[in-house]
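Our working data are protein records whose layout never changes between entries. An example says more than a description, so a record of this kind follows.
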Amino acid sequence: MRIALFATCLADTLLPQTGRAVASVLERLGHEVVVPREQTCCGQMHLNSGYPAVAERLAGRFAEIFGGYEAVVSPSSSCVGTIRELEPGLPVYELSELLVQRLGVDDVGASFPHRVTYHPTCHSLRAIRVGDAPLRLLRAVRGLELVELPEARECCGFGGTFSVKNRDTSLAMLADKCACIAQTGAEVCTALDGSCLLHIGGGLGHRHSTVRALHLAEILAST
C-alpha cells in the first residue's frame, strides 16, 4: 500500500524518533510511506480548548492534504480520534489498528528483550477503540516479556490542557499511574500516545525510576 504518515505536532517537534519508527515498521512490511511536507496540526488542541471553528478549518485542510491516499497512519490515537470526529470519511488509522485490523499483521518481525507493561491511553480505549491490537503486536515481539499493568484503564492525568488547568488533580493521577507501573517491575512502559508517555516519563523521572517510557512504534521498529 501507499500510506501517508501524519507525524503529529508532537512527533515533529519533540519525538521525531516515533515518526521514523512508524515508517520503519511499515517499510519493513513492504509498504511505501509518504510524508506530506505541508501537513500541520489536526485541530485537536483547538477542539479540546473550546475553539471548534478553528479545529474544523484545520481538519478540512488535513482532508485536502491526505484525502488522496489509500490509508493515513499516525502514532497518536488522540489525533486519529480528532480527525475521525471532524472528517469521518478519511481512512485514518493509529499504527496498531492499521497493522492488525486493516493489514492483518500481528508479527512485524521485531525483537525487544525487555520486561514491558502497556498503558492503554484514554483515546485508544474510548475514542477509537483499538481493542487488543497493541497487545497482540507486543506478544509477538521476540524476547519481550509483557506484564499486566494494575488499574490499566485509569487515566495518567495528562489530558492536554487538563494537566495545566488542573495541575494538582493531574499530578495525583500521575502519582497513582507511576505507582502501578512500579508494581509491575517492568523496564519499559509503552503506550500509543507520545503526549501521555511524556507525562508518564516525567513522573517516573521525578521519582528517580529507571523505567523508560517508550512508544509502541519504537518497540515494533526494534530488531
The radius of gyration is 17 Å. The mean pLDDT is 95. DSSP finds twelve helices and eight strands in the chain.
